[in-house]
């Protein structure tokens, strides 16, 4: 029987800073680039694994207070860092795995994305790095 995960209390850390209370959405995609290795005589294309190029996109509530979104992320633009996410704040386990991107790169940081009567939210994307998952 299929089951799904309902994320009501995930844990999100960026550069070892807990950003859970400032994050409203996350999308982690593991990508291994496909390299074509088709040779003469083949009747279908053939691919082999290339470099890993995973991404993690976070939707964050923007705040300029000390130790909040902007203060944490501003120094990371143009650098590599480590981000972690897991379904709940409970201990890491097979049913609560912790996914990590180590050495991922933050290229851009939107400063303001505001509209009248709406909360200021920004989408940030960490790219590359080495993906790993811990289950204990």
Describe this structure in words.
It is a single chain. It is globular, with a radius of gyration of 18 Å. It has a single domain (11-134), classed as Elongation Factor Tu (Ef-tu), domain 3, CATH 2.40.30. Helix content is 4%, strand content 44%. Strands 1, 2, 3, 6, 7, 8, 9 and 10 form an eight-stranded antiparallel sheet that branches. The chain has a two-stranded antiparallel sheet with strand order 4-5. By secondary structure, it is mainly beta. Strand 1 (11-14) and strand 2 form a beta hairpin. It contains one helix and ten strands.
Q: What is the overall silhouette?
A: globular
Give me the Rg, rounded: 18 Å
The description of the largest β-sheet is:
8 strands, antiparallel
Low-confidence stretches: none
Count of discrete alpha- or pi-helical segments spanning 4 or more residues: 1
What's the CATH first level? Mainly Beta
Task: Assign a percent range to the helix content.
Answer: under 10%
Integer count of domains: 1
CATH structural architecture:
Beta Barrel
Alpha-beta classification? mainly beta
Number of strands: 10
Percent in strands:
35-45%
Look at the structure and give the mean pLDDT.
Answer: 93
Keywords:
136 residues, mainly beta, Elongation Factor Tu (Ef-tu), domain 3, eight-stranded antiparallel β-sheet, two-stranded antiparallel ribbon, 1 helix, 10 strands
Summarize the structure.
By secondary structure, the protein is mainly beta.
How do the helices and strands line up, and which of them pair or pack?
Elements: E1 11-14, E2 17-18, E3 23-29, E4 32-36, E5 47-52, E6 55-61, H1 69-73, E7 79-86, E8 98-106, E9 121-127, E10 130-134
Antiparallel strand pairs: 1-2, 1-7, 3-6, 4-5, 6-9, 7-8, 8-9, 8-10
């Amino acid at each position: 029987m299929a089951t799904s995960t309902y994320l009501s209390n995930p844990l999100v850390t960026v550069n070892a800073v807990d950003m859970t209370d400032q994050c409203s959405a996350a999308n982690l995609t593991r990508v291994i680039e496909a390299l074509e290795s088709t040779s003469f005589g083949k009747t279908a294309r053939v691919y082999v694994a290339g470099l890993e190029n995973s991404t993690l996109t976070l939707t964050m509530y923007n705040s300029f207070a000390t130790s909040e979104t902007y203060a944490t992320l501003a120094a990371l633009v143009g650098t590599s860092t480590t981000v972690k996410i897991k379904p709940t704040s409970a201990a890491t386990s097979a049913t609560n795995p912790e996914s990590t991107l180590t050495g991922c790169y933050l290229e851009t940081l939107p400063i303001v994305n505001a509209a009248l009567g709406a909360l200021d939210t920004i989408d940030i994307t960490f790219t590359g790095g080495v993906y790993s998952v811990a289950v204990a």
